[in-house]
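Methods — Computational structure assignment.
A single polypeptide chain was analysed. Its primary sequence is given first, followed by the predicted tertiary structure written as structure tokens.
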Amino acid sequence: VCTTLIGGLPLATNALLNDSERQLLRRARSTPLLLGSNGSDLDLVVGSLYFRALPRQPLRQADVTAVRNTGLARAIPLLLGHQAQGARVIGTSIDYFSFRNLTPTSGSLFTTLGECVLGAEVARTMGLEPGDTITTSPRTLFDLAASYPIRMKVAGVLRPSGSADDDVIFTDVKTTWVMSGLGHGHQDLTTTAPTDLVLKRKDGLVTANAKLPEVPEITAETLASFHFHGDPEGFPVSAVIAVPRSQRDGDLLRGRFEGPGPPRIVAIRPETSVRELLVSTFRLRNVFNLVLLLVALAALLALLLVYALSLRLRRDEFNTCGRMGARRGVMVRMVAAEIAFVLLASALLSLLLQVGLVTLRPAVSQFLLSRGGGEKMSR
């Protein structure tokens, strides 16, 4: 077992790291441009691609409209910061699913306010399916007034993609605005209403008191009562994925956000930021490999000590073999055969470890990226 770990552990860890790096680069490479507020590029990339960090300052819906009006790129908004039963809720548009090649395995994509689509892993762990409901959570324990928990209807469940999309809940940006308290609905008091909610009735008009509750679930009956306060063009958006029609259009779009002085909005290429991150992790991997090498050398010395002590304990056995006529070369070959057997068994175990790793590597890499690696990178 020790010999197997000495040879198989470095190979296994390097294979996992290589696969994780490939997944990071694949998702970054498939995202042409990211637009966000001026700040940490890494936070913007980790938040927008892996949903693990929040940009420092949000953009406005007017910025999304401005990108669309240029005609240079398709603009896909992202709004982060909300959760539902421990899963992250991502507000976006219907274009996100065609951009990421995401299709529902059951149900359909969201079409109206209050509907959501579950990632494959979220649906599996929560045991939800189309037609069920899920309730959003306040952002913090003491943020009950600033957020608006609602019950969302599950419209569909996405096919597994082996990416961060499996671990989140998608809904329309307007629904996340409702969660932020920028819009709400009320009960219809013109038909039936509890007497303790009505302040007065006059000429068909009903005046409610402060006890009037907001509707916790958006249904076909209550959809018309939902409205927003203020101009939606000023509502927040965490980031924007820009998909230009060509390389030239992408360069022109980036040029619009570059100029003298610190810009309010930055346009970055995620692949560049991820490669810079991987340079740092490559240095850490070299340190890790050096530590593994030192541990392997120490374990090898321990194995040599075990063999030396074993030979001393078997001195009487070798003397008996000599009295029976065995030459010294025979005993050397016997000990060498024992060592060769251990090495062969270790090689087979290491091979089985690598075969198992090939089978489980995508799931393990996704686990590291979605549940551990992203949070560490954001910190």
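Note: The CA atoms of residues 2 and 299 lie 7 Å apart.
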